[in-house]
Amino acid sequence: MAGSFYFTSESVSEGHPDKLCDRVSDAILDSFLSEEESARVACETFATTNRLVVGGEVGVSDEIKLEKLMSSMEGIARMCVKDIGYAQDGFHWQKLIFDNLLHKQSVDIAQGVDRDGAGDQGIMFGYAVNENDKFMPAALHYSHAILKRLSEVRKNGSEPQLGPDSKSQLTLKYENGKPVSARSIVLSTQHLDEKLSSQDVRNIVEPYIREILPEEWIGQETEWHINPTGKFVIGGPDGDAGLTGRKIIVDTYGGAAPHGGGAFSGKDPTKVDRSAAYAARYLAKNVVAAGLAEKCCIQLSYAIGIDRPLSIFAETYGTGTVSRELIEKAISESMDLSPKGIIDHLRLRRPIYSRTAAYGHFGRDPESDGGFSWEKLDLIDEIKSNSR
């Protein structure tokens, strides 16, 4: 990775069918956590032409609360669709058919989680690299940023001809392990005017792309592919079905690091698929920020009902300033990595998840209400001290 090479990552917008489903699932999770901090939620959403289906397992302390929450599911889902911007003939926030198939959490699963064990088995990865001030792989970071900017100008009325559904992809050239230029820029975005050509769409979006990317990265050799197939009017679930949890690489590190396979959205923090992946990112970011490595990948593993990680592994790809063993020691001594310890340390029993559903779960700024708490850099001194 120290030589010259090309690396590509993609992002998808909040209006992508899969991301819309993630948003609905996380909004339902937030509604349960707003009602009861100890609520259990594993919510999946499916979307297709003018239909939205939610299903999965939920749990709260009494039937009255559950009945109240269940009656609010349809309104929550419709408001998510409205906020994203779908009022099309084939997918309209008011007209779509909504099916609620949520039911009580299995008592077999609950018995292990109720004693503070993990909600499932699995492996989770966290990653950080010093390619920018967000400690994120550059191709993914800028792919997210482009789509987020286009969403802003669509919603504030500056570019009303853009639609909610879009995808971006960047191929960056690396020299000596650092990104130096954009080899190709790919963007496909839904548009509401059928008469717009690919060149018309490029004329709209190019200024915003140039606003986001470092100026020196774009040159004569940069290839542009804007709406390369032509017209893109039919978008969202009317054009392609969506499902919660199908964009796990977009959600994490854009292919720059391993992935354990577990999705995030719609899962309460007792599910280590989510909470342990957040903890692993938190630790990897603090390791890199502490100067112990230029890049760091951390793996954690868990078993259902067990209240501790089964293994902790750190990889620094030859960039570490201390040994792997010392980094693993520092990790285990700097944070309680039991499921309860992670939840308490990062304060995850709060309705902070809807905002994670698009533009990545990582590389965001910590927020005053506790959102993105796993992005804080408050373990640097402790990790340094424990790595000696």
Protein topology:
Blueprint: E1 5-12, H1 17-35, E2 40-48, E3 51-59, H2 63-84, E4 97-104, H3 107-113, E5 122-129, H4 138-155, E6 162-175, E7 178-191, H5 198-212, E8 223-226, E9 242-243, H6 248-251, H7 272-289, E10 295-302, E11 311-315, H8 324-334, H9 339-346, H10 380-386
Parallel strand pairs: 3-4, 7-8
Antiparallel strand pairs: 1-6, 2-3, 2-9, 5-10, 6-7, 10-11
Helix pairs in contact: 1-2, 4-5, 7-9, 8-10
Order of secondary-structure elements: EHEEHEHEHEEHEEHHEEHHH
Basic shape: flat
Residue share in helices? 25-40%
- Biggest sheet statistics: 4 strands, mixed
The secondary structure category is alpha+beta
DSSP E strands, number: 11
Question: Averaging pLDDT over every residue, what do you get?
Answer: 95
How many distinct helices?
A: 10
Sheet with most strands: strand arrangement? 1-6-7-8
Using only C-alpha atoms, the radius of gyration works out to: 21 Å
**What share of residues are in beta strands?**
15-25%
Poorly predicted ranges? none
> Distance between termini?
28 Å
Polypeptide structure, described:
- The chain is flat and about 65 Å long.
- The protein starts with a strand and ends with a helix.
- The strands form 3 sheets. It has a 4-stranded mixed beta sheet with strand order 1-6-7-8.
- α1 (17-35) packs antiparallel against α2, α7 crosses α9 and α8 packs across α10.
- 33% of the residues lie in helices and 23% in strands.
- It has 10 helices and 11 strands.
- The protein is of the alpha+beta class and 388 residues long.
- β3, α2 and β4 form a beta-alpha-beta unit.
